[in-house]
Amino acid sequence: MQLNTSTTISDIAKRANVSKSTVSRVINDKSVVNQQTRSTVLQAMASLGYEPNVFARSLASGRSMTVGVVTQKIGSPFYDTIMQGVIQGFSGTGYSPLFVDGQWEEGTELEVIQTVLGRKVDGLLLLGGDVSIGDLNNLKARLPLIVVGKQIAGWNDQCVYVDNAAAAYDATKHLIDFGHRDIAMICGIKHHQDAVRRYDGYVKALNDSGIELDPELVLDGNFSAQSGILGVNSLLMRSKQFTAIFCANDMVAYGARLALQRQGIRVPHDVSIIGFDDQAESAYVSPPLTTVRQPGAEMGAAAAAALVKLMQGESCHLPVMHAELQQRESVARVF
């Protein structure tokens, strides 16, 4: 379809069988328009190749029609999935996301947030991150804000997240149900909320099953494949007995599997592995990885839709997203 710069509001109104004022309201997003009518007008605009002048519209409305999206580690498979969902969620709304990278550093996050605020964004999406609750509350008072992948007390309607502790519990319990008792864990970043909650779920599953936690089976990590390699190497160098590893994410699991393979230790025949996130590659590694699926794309789309509502002066409700164990071939029974 070619863009048609000569298309007028009258042309769109005639095609959609609505008034010119209705078309104007849809274009400028100034007031609530029935969703069916809005869709009809948008379809008419698309069929006529009409593209509204965003700059002129922002001058008229006092809004930039852009949204700041602060992600962590652009290129991370998990955050890339969320960002794809964000793009999908803003599609057709007139809002354009502006992505910046917080790099899991609070200082960097605050810097890039100031950068996007300087662009006069209409709202803000924070994907994970380490911004303090005080700074979050200040931002929340300043503009519409949704946090993705992080649970904040009292923010139930402005957070999109999964219950990491419950999901980690289920993953560890799956190993226990398969007969494993010597279960190691390679953790994520120490201060990272997701990492802490996944560790808590691991510990609770052990306790509920009457298995005493062995601190020497708990390895520090940082969500990277390299930390998976280092964690396994540490276990082997100390001759620790273990039959399974719960990894803080899939990247850690990839590294752990590689380190075991290099030592001639077979997965899952000798050691079972479970990951967390369910990256696209996890179904195709050898062996296919049993892991916890986080609905990243759905989380991103839900966050974008909720932010649009907030920017339009409406309320939103965000339920806790469901994480689901994907059983593949990296876990074997112990008899």
From TrEMBL:
PROSITE patterns: HTH_LACI_1, HTH_LACI_2
GO terms assigned for molecular function: DNA-binding transcription factor activity; transcription cis-regulatory region binding
Keywords of this entry: DNA-binding, Repressor, Transcription, Transcription regulation
Pfam families from the UniProt entry: LacI (PF00356), Peripla_BP_3 (PF13377)
Ranges of residues in domain HTH lacI-type: 7-61
Organism domain of life: Bacteria
SUPFAM superfamilies noted in UniProt: lambda repressor-like DNA-binding domains, Periplasmic binding protein-like I
PANTHER family hit by this protein: HTH-TYPE TRANSCRIPTIONAL REPRESSOR PURR-RELATED (PTHR30146:SF148), LACI-RELATED TRANSCRIPTIONAL REPRESSOR (PTHR30146)
Name of the protein in its database record: Catabolite control protein A
Organism in which the protein naturally occurs: Rubripirellula tenax
Gene: ccpA_1
